[in-house]
Design goal:
The complex is a heterodimer of chains A (282) and B (335). Chain A is mainly α. Chain A is built from ten helices and no strands. In chain B, helix 5 packs parallel to helix 13. The chains are: A mainly alpha (282), B mainly alpha (335). At the A-B interface, helix 4, helix 5, helix 8 and helix 10 of A face helix 1, helix 6, helix 7, helix 11 and helix 12 of B.
């Protein structure tokens, strides 16, 4: 059978390419100190907006050029993987835990529990998410922890809606009735029987959510609400690059490229997972 | 829909609005930073500060403030902007048209692009064309509007500078407009020069907003078109000798549009939410850009007004789509 094998090969490409870039990010984040050719914070006004190494006027050792304060772009990009990955992991985990729990309850119990939780989701969905995240961070004060809380508070609905729908399907399955007949408690049935069947959907969403979290962090640093402006994030680098794009395009291009590839990697990884878990979908 | 169903739907809308109002009020009230401290000069006396507090109603207890505020909101009065010292209602409705023009231009681009994609892919299904459309959709879908905006700035603002990357209209132009709907009014006045200038400013943010939506439209429409092309009526039309293109345009498309419509409605609210950051990116003078300024300036009444207006738009779009779906599909009318 030629066809299934072809499909199988395509899945692996998505998973592998996405996974490799994510792996590379983790490597850079852990070893940023050893990899960075310069101090990420060192300013040198003699070295303002140097172009990357392959363009005339470049300074040796500054491979991707410098920004308007003479800071090395490569070093800043490498260090910026840290806040990006921290937000991706912590914010997605929090959104996932809270949203999945509520979704599981709504889907499994139905009735009033479902009505109250669904109404809450409706209210949440009536807010423009970017505006709400900016508002939340402004309320809590800028900083990485505010960014993480804001993302979790907004994006739990994604998990809640999907898990609720899945749990509603699972609830009608025979195995749930059997488990009830065997005298298992509700908590045990939800955690040990229903949850494992909903888990593939949660994992796919989790990968997609990590990409979203990275973007939201970039947006919040773009409007200067994430960590302090000295410490690099891709979003704050992009904001600086946007303001001097006509003078020094490279200040915008390189962090943008990293953000682009990272978002693409998480979404492709998620799509790859989806196809892997559910071959019928293909 | 029966009358009772309509009433239930409206009642649930009111609950949603009330919830939104509570969340907005609570969020804005717990915000640190004293808005009064930001608007007074260093020489203000304690009496001046107390007077200002009373003027903005900040001297009363929080539940009382909420009730007073809600009473004004219901009558369309959102208070006075602290940073601009103008009526929030006037400021917000002055900016809303710019955002609406941008959002609907983006919607038009998304429907045209996604629709064309889907029709091509459905006509040449199983060929390289369909694979190409799928790839295009996959990429456009996974890249959010913020990134598309930045990519367009680099491509068409810097590398090949053919479009303006800042503002709504060139500041040197003299504007004869009497309404805030510049794009529409430039058309009505037959001012081609102004229309093109406005469009030159709007096209990149609109494309950035449109691309992810175009991918969704294309995917849904393609799936329903392919399904429709296998139905009995399509088969009968084919055996009557009509061409594949004719069957698709005259038979399948009509039946495939309804499912896409529902999805477009939901996705359009996402697009509208995206205008906040995309307007910021292009310094476009719309509601979203204003919202970010309001947050930075801690302008509580303005923030409340904008967020509530967005919520009204979101819920209104969903309701419109629901009603349209029912109107288009007679089977749902007695559900």
């Amino acid at each position: 059978m030629a066809e299934p094998r072809a499909i199988h090969r395509r899945l692996n490409v998505r998973l592998w390419l996405g996974g490799s870039w994510i792996g590379l990010l983790f490597f850079c984040a852990i070893f940023a100190g050893a990899l960075a050719p310069h101090d990420r914070l060192a300013q040198d006004l003699m070295l303002q907006t140097l172009p990357p190494a392959w363009i005339d006027g470049a300074e040796p050792g500054y491979y991707l050029g410098t920004d308007s304060l003479g800071r090395d772009i490569l070093a800043r990009i490498l260090y910026a993987t840290r806040p990006a990955l921290i937000v991706a992991i912590v914010a997605s985990s929090a959104a996932c835990a809270f949203g999945s729990l509520l979704g599981l309850m709504a889907g499994f119990f139905g009735g009033w529990t479902d009505r109250v939780i669904s109404r809450l989701v409706d209210i949440w969905m009536a807010f423009p998410p970017v505006l709400l995240s900016i508002l939340l961070v402004a309320v809590m004060g800028p900083g990485l922890s505010s960014v993480i809380i804001a993302i979790a508070v907004i994006d739990w609905t994604r998990f809640c809606r999907v898990v609720r729908a899945e749990a509603m399907q699972q609830r009608r399955m025979d195995y749930v009735d059997s488990a009830k007949a065997m005298g298992y408690g509700t908590g045990r049935i939800m955690a040990r029987e229903v949850l494992p069947n909903v888990l593939p959907a949660i994992l796919v969403l989790f990968s997609l959510e990590m990409g979203i979290a990275v973007i939201v962090e970039a947006i919040l640093s773009f409007v200067n609400l994430s960590i302090s402006t000295d410490d690099p994030t891709w979003g704050s680098m992009i904001a600086e690059g946007r303001s001097i794009v006509h003078q020094a395009w490279w200040v915008l291009v390189f962090p943008l490229l990293c953000l682009f590839l990272t978002v693409l990697a998480f979404s492709q990884f998620g799509e790859g997972l989806k196809e892997r878990f559910d071959p019928v979908m293909r | 829909m029966r009358l009772s169903a309509v009433l239930i739907r409206l009642a649930s809308l009111i609950v949603t609005f009330f919830g939104v109002a509570v969340v907005v009020f609570v969020l804005v009230r717990v915000a640190p930073g004293d808005p009064i401290a930001m608007m007074i000069g260093p020489g203000a006396s304690a009496q001046d500060i107390a007077d200002l507090r009373a003027l903005y109603g900040l001297d009363k207890s929080i539940p009382v403030q909420f009730v007073i505020w809600l009473g004004h909101v219901v009558r369309g009065d959102f208070g006075t902007s602290i940073s601009l010292r103008e009526s929030v209602t006037e400021v917000v409705f002055g900016r809303l048209p710019a955002t609406l023009e941008l959002a609907f231009l983006a919607l038009a681009i998304a429907v045209a692009l996604g629709g064309a994609n889907a029709i091509l892919a459905a006509l040449w299904r199983g060929t390289a064309t369909e694979a190409g459309v799928d790839l295009f959709n996959g990429v456009t879908l996974s890249i959010p509007d913020f990134l598309w905006g930045l990519i367009f700035i680099l491509l068409f603002g810097v590398a090949i500078p053919i479009f303006d990357i800042s503002g709504r209209v060139s500041p040197t132009l003299e504007l004869p407009f009497v309404t805030p709907f510049f794009l529409i009014e430039s058309l009505v006045r037959l001012r081609g020069d102004l229309f093109l200038d406005l469009l030159g400013h709007m096209i990149m943010p609109a494309m950035a907003l449109a691309l992810p939506l175009a991918a969704v439209v294309s995917q849904i429409l393609k799936t329903s078109l392919k399904e429709a092309m296998h139905q009995d009526y399509a088969l009968i039309a084919r055996t009557k000798g009509f061409s594949e293109t004719y069957v698709l345009w005259r038979e399948a498309l009509r039946n495939a549009v309804t499912p896409s419509l529902t999805v477009i409605g939901v996705q359009f609210t996402f697009l509208l939410g995206g205008t906040v950051i995309v307007e910021r990116l292009f310094s476009y003078e719309g509601l979203g850009n204003l919202a970010i300024d309001a947050v930075i300036n801690r302008d509580l009444p303005l923030i409340q007004g904008i967020v509530l207006l967005f919520a009204v738009l979101f819920v209104g779009i969903n309701l419109t789509v629901d009603l349209c779906t029912v109107a288009l599909n007679p089977r749902l009318r007695h559900g």
